[in-house]
Every structure is written in structure tokens, then in C-alpha cells.
Amino acid sequence: MMKSAIISAALNKVSVISFHIFLEVMERQTHFESILKELYYPRDKLQVTLHFYSVLKAVPERYHEAMIYIKKRCAFVRLFMPDQYNDKLHSACFGDIPYVPPKGVNSGVLLMNLTKMRSYGWENKVLEIFNNYSKIADLFGDQKIINILLHFERDLLKLIPCQYNYVHIFCDHGQYCKEAESDPNGIEILHGAGSQYITERFQLYEVFRMYRDFTGSHEDVYEQVMVPLRRYYENPRANSRCFGSLNRLLFKSYYENFR
Q1: What is the sign, positive or negative, of the torsion defined by CA atoms of 49, 54, 60, 64?
Q2: Amino acid 87: pLDDT
Q3: pLDDT of 46-55, one tens digit each?
Q4: In the chain, where are the structural domains located?
Q5: What are the residues whose beta carbons fall under 8 Å from the beta carbon of 84, sequence distance 6 or more?
Q6: Which residues form the signal peptide (predicted)?
Q7: What does pLDDT average to over the chain?
């Protein structure tokens, strides 16, 4: 994630980028620091900073015991960011529980206005939902809690177009993200949900692998990443419709800028 974000920042001539990283074991911060040290990017033009936080410190102490049963703790922490980090950060299947119609909100990509969330009393609201609904549903994850809250408070939510949270199901059964078709850049943010970035046989794994193994500068992205990916997705495969969509939508802007 850090590598792709830094590459994108360099390509778009961004001068400053900050990563806010939540860790269960704070000693792990040396791992991220070493990754940053090994990355090649124009350090004279792009300033990169890392900020580390403890997951447990973000969650109120009375809920630490519940954290034991939460699988995606770092996602759960997002529910408490407005109140816990007010000076440090600036910037499915739902069963019988309420959700945002028609199909619920995916929390994979969130742009959070922490100032407005604090004024709304966000933390008290999510804790109230957790207390009220955890007895009848598995709420050990942030997505269900967010859907319940926003089901009743729709004015708090502004949906972003699907090309900013493009998941594999959009092309598994046909092309369900029409906005990506009309966007001149095609897919803006690719979401690796459903183990797409860790299972080699899945459609999006090759995108992850290419960026993971990429060792050049941002100026080499086209030749070392985009061209090989285009060849890969041009090959006829069992899921040819999905591969065709990915080939067309992943590289729209690159075709325009580099051809």
C-alpha cells in the first residue's frame, strides 16, 4: 500500500504525503520504516512521513476485552478516530440488521471528516449501536456498525462513485461499475477485497504482484508495470469478460498519457 501510494504521489507531483499507521505491536514500526528506506522515489521533491499509533490506545479501555474477538482490529479502530486523534489527524451480508439501501455501504474506502464527526458525537453513537445490536448480530467489524448508524442518519453520508472503490465483483458477473466506464481515468482506486491480493488465481492478484515486485522509480511505472499488466490482461482466459474489463479500465489514463 505504501509503495503504490508513494508512486502515485510522485506521478501526480504531490510534494507531501503522510501515513498514519495503527499497530497492535508497536515494535512493528521498524518494519514500515525499513520499507520506506528501501523505496526509491524523488526524495528531494516528495516528503514522506510515518506516524504510528497503538490500536488499543485508540479504543476506550472498557472495550478492550471485546477487542479480543475482533478479527479486523485496525478497521474497527476507525470508529474511534474522531475523538481519540482530534489533534493528530487532519485530514456483505447484513442479515436482519439495518443497513444503507440498496445494498449497504462498503467501508473499504472512507473519506472521514473528523471535525464534523466529533461535533456529531460519533463515538457515543457507535458505542450505543455496539451495545444495542451486539446481542443479536456479530458486530465485530466496523462495516456493520457504520451501516446501522448511517441507515438512520443518511444525511451524514455522501457516497463516492464506484470507480474509487473498484472491487472484483464489479466485473465477475458483468460490468457493474458504469462510472468507471465513463471516467477518463477508468478505475481510480482498486480494492483488494475478497483475498484478491493474496490468492494467486484471483483476477486482481497480478496487479498486486507487479507493484510488490516493482523496484524502479515512478518514471519506470509505465514500462515495468503497466505494459506487462496490459499484456497479462489481454491474454484470453476463462473469465475473459472480466479480464477484458480490467484491461480497458485499469489503463485508460496511461494509454492517453504514454502512447
Answers
A1: positive
A2: 47
A3: 899 898 887 7
A4: 1-54, 59-159, 162-258
A5: 57, 58, 59, 123
A6: none
A7: 78
